[in-house]
Amino acid sequence: MAFVLAGGRGSRLKELTDDCAKPAIPFGGRSRIIDFALSNALNSGIPRIGVATQYKQRALIRHIERLSPFLSTRRNGSLDILPGSEGSGGIYYEGTAGAVFQNIDVIERRAPRHVVILAGDHVYKMDYGRMLRQHVATGADVTVGCITVPREEARGFGVMHVDVADRITAFVEKPHDPPAVPGNPDASLASMGIYVFDTAFLLDALHRDDADLGSSHDFGADIIPHIVQHGRAFAHRFADSCVRSAEEVNAYWRDVGTLDAYFAAHLDVMARRPRFDMEDERWPLWTQRLQTARAPQRRDMTSPLIVHDGVLAGSRVRRSLLSDGTNIADHANLEEVLLLPNCHIGSGARLKRVIVDAGVTVPAGLVVGEDPDFDAQRFRRTAGGVCLVTQQMIDRLSMRDDVRSAA
């Protein structure tokens, strides 16, 4: 069974998560971020899935509900959507381990031999079956998925020290001085938030943690360090189970938790030879496929479409992604632009390094991405020079004073 943790807001994505949780944010045209964890589970042969939701969960629940009939009729599987409460009067999930513990009855009812705990907010392709086989072969109590990162970047992760057999000897959350990979002093092993447990061991660990009044009920802060000290914890390296198409050179995993990271991941997808291939037929994105099969066709639908360099509907478009339901008027100029679903770009607008939120109507003649100081006064501008444009920001504009003519 796979248990997906999808309740977080993702506050570093700023206004993109005002109305929905990070796992529900659109990605790549017609997908959402959670689709990667769900599809990895299905493609790995794990058809029983539980999804814990909490923050602004309505859009996320509607999206993943599409999988339920598919799982039951074609995969002999099941999908349990497990909402938590955002206020009083219901279940409020406290920590990642707390979210699983609150739904322990679901795991007991499904009675799987193993449980794979997954974060629902990362972009990657991975065969969990390879990780499961390592878990069984080593006799581990827990196996932790990990990626190799530059040591100076590891401070924002849970980081592990391992011996020559990849048994974890120390696990620390966001350390100031991250332990290095054996034989590679400039790199560290960082947790991906993916854990494999024997079910019986997991249930015992959750009960023990729930009884600990000093616990924050978090896998990275509490459960995993306890097992490292008192049990058998092993690391599983992402490179050993990453799925790559012929187009992809390197193993690809990205936490798209900031606007700059979200934008950069789309540039990776949009490259002529993509660093991350979302169209891999051997490892399909299932919710994307189901949505495509059911989506009504619209005459103004130009997408999802990646445009490397060309003229579209009388407008110049370079290195940009157009999601479902977008429409571009004549004489616009777009360069490195992400249009989320159902956007309209007015005539003569000029946009460069811009994320346009779903449902936004960009006024004719609006210029974004050419004057950093002016952009920062009107929109959300990141340290990396990316602008986020939402409808609320557009509505605040004074057309007389703030909208520059592109003429």
Automatic annotation (TrEMBL):
| Gene from which this protein is expressed | glgC
Q: Which organism is it from?
A: Sphingobium nicotianae
Q: Which residues cross the membrane?
A: none
Protein name according to UniProt: Glucose-1-phosphate adenylyltransferase
User: Which controlled-vocabulary keywords does the entry list?
Assistant: ATP-binding, Carbohydrate metabolism, Glycogen biosynthesis, Glycogen metabolism, Nucleotide-binding, Nucleotidyltransferase, Transferase
Task: Specify whether Metal-binding is a keyword of the entry.
Answer: no
Q: Where is the Glucose-1-phosphate adenylyltransferase/Bifunctional protein GlmU-like C-terminal hexapeptide domain?
A: 297-389
Cross-referenced HAMAP family, in alphabetical order? GlgC
| EC number, UniProt record | 2.7.7.27
Molecular functions (GO terms): ATP binding; glucose-1-phosphate adenylyltransferase activity
Binding locations of alpha-D-glucose 1-phosphate: 93, 158, 173-174, 191
Write down the InterPro entries for this protein, in alphabetical order. ADP-Glc_PPase, GlgC_bac, GlmU/GlgC-like_hexapep, NTP_transferase_dom, Nucleotide-diphossugar_trans, Trimer_LpxA-like_sf
Family label = Belongs to the bacterial/plant glucose-1-phosphate adenylyltransferase family.
Give the first-level EC class, as a single word: transferase
